[in-house]
Amino acid sequence: MDAEAAKLIGAGLATLGMIGAGIGVGNIFGQYLSGALRNPSAAASQTGNLFVGAALAEALGILAFVIAILLMFAV
């Protein structure tokens, strides 16, 4: 396998991190909604945790995207 093929395979695998981030954000908001519907009085106190978790999951997705771009276009 040549180096160009290895770079493209690595970039494709890094793209899986972006897919995982999308699944993670959906899971975070879905579980928050489920918990908020079960106990509405506690939902307001958990909103900060919701946005911190979503921000961390999105940051990992952006990091995976940057790694994929670096693998594809780095010399």
Question: What characteristics describe this protein?
Answer:
about 80 residues; mainly alpha; F1FO ATP Synthase; about 90% helix; elongated
Structure write-up:
This protein is mainly α and 75 residues long. It has a single domain (3-73), classed as F1FO ATP Synthase (Up-down Bundle), CATH 1.20.20.10. Helix content is 89%, strand content 0%. Helix 1 (3-38) runs antiparallel to helix 3 (47-73). It is elongated.
Terminal CA distance reads 17 Å
Q: How many extended strands?
A: 0
Q: Provide the gyration radius in Å.
A: 17 Å
Class of secondary structure makeup: mainly alpha
Helix count, per DSSP?
3
**Uncertain parts:** none
* Amount of beta strand: under 5%
Per the principal axes of the C-alpha atoms, what is the gross shape?
Answer: elongated
CATH class: Mainly Alpha
